[in-house]
Write a structure and sequence with these properties.
The chain contains 3 helices and 6 strands; from the N terminus they run αββαββββα. By secondary structure, it is α+β, with helices and mostly antiparallel strands. It has a single domain (2-129), classed as Nuclear Transport Factor 2, Chain: A (Roll). The chain has a 6-stranded mixed sheet, sandwiched between helices. A hairpin with a 3-residue loop joins strand 3 and strand 4 (80-90). The two termini are 23 Å apart.
């Protein structure tokens, strides 16, 4: 089942980068987004699939176009998937390009993601959270 989780995460990033509502079918109804480690507008919020799809679309509005979430490495951690991704976006008004490598941990229950936790560039914390400390 855990390799399936990796493939679901890969698919979610593809759908997010396209703003595709097909992602609604892939996440749990009680999905939690934890961006408490983010520098700008940190938050933790339980959202339903519709609200998560809206969150992705609002990211596109904030940046002027949808950001790209490109998985560079997805690591199977059983009920967790550690994702090292490349996030790319361009500022709506400034035109400044953002190109960063960040870590996310996706937690699964019953074959669906129930949590997305953002770790920014803190690779060690992400590894620990996924139970995969180096």
């Amino acid at each position: 089942m855990s390799q399936e989780n990796v493939e679901i995460v890969r698919r979610l990033y593809q759908l997010m980068s396209r703003g595709d509502d097909a992602l609604l079918e892939l996440i749990a109804p009680d999905f939690e987004v934890d961006f408490s480690r983010r520098f700008i507008d940190p938050f933790v919020e339980r959202v339903d699939p519709d609200a998560f799809a809206l969150f992705v679309k609002e990211a596109g509005e904030a940046w002027g176009e949808l950001p790209r979430w490109e998985p560079e490495e997805l690591i199977d951690g059983g009920d967790k998937v550690l994702a090292f991704i490349r996030f790319q976006a361009k500022g709506r008004t400034s035109g400044v390009e953002v190109d960063v490598h960040v870590a996310n941990v996706w937690t699964f229950r019953d074959g669906k993601p129930v949590e997305l936790k953002y770790f920014g560039e803190d690779r060690d914390a992400a590894l620990e959270a996924a139970g995969l400390s180096e």
